[in-house]
Design brief:
mainly alpha, Tetracycline Repressor, domain 2, about 70% helix
Amino acid sequence: MTPRSDTSVESLDGYEKGRVPRDVRERQLLEVAELTFARLGYQGASLEEVARQAGVTRQYISKLFRDKEGLYLACHARARDQLEQRLLAVSAELPADPGELDARLVLRQGLEAYFRFVQERGSGWDVLFGGGAAVAGSAAGEVERLRAHTVGLIAALVTAALPSVASEDADVYAAAMSGAGEQVARWWRCHDDVSLDDVVDRLVTVFADGIAQFSDR
């Protein structure tokens, strides 16, 4: 399946002009902004462009999100939460008995969750890791803090899959997986003839032996 770069924008059909509920309007603005940041990049995007695409005024967006940085961080937090919910779903399905855990299978499930997000939420991935990501200023600092939180979730998944792994080893392994996953996702989005299963198979091959060695130390 070809990795997609778009997302759907919530329809406002059925609402009279000026009577769109605030929560609906906020969701629509975040969807439009996500597409704008993904298409133009953080530096190239503007509140004026988001306002034009959404059919509202710049002042209205400023009232809800303060400025471009506030709007971007709201988009980033939304996309990251969607990614993390997929990783947490993998953790929630792990058997309670460590003896029933298959580390290789857990690794595959985690990678599938991540790359399915890349496939289904391409513009969200762009805001998190691609050309739409903020790379300087106070927004970049907040992005790094949120990224570290995601790496922590990966480390927790590693620890759940292999309880014998030392915490520092799990942290290093999670950071390596996060970095590799980001770079492979960037490559995959330029090679739409490669299936999700093929990408996951290759990364399982790369990481499976490594995780076993960590557990044997």
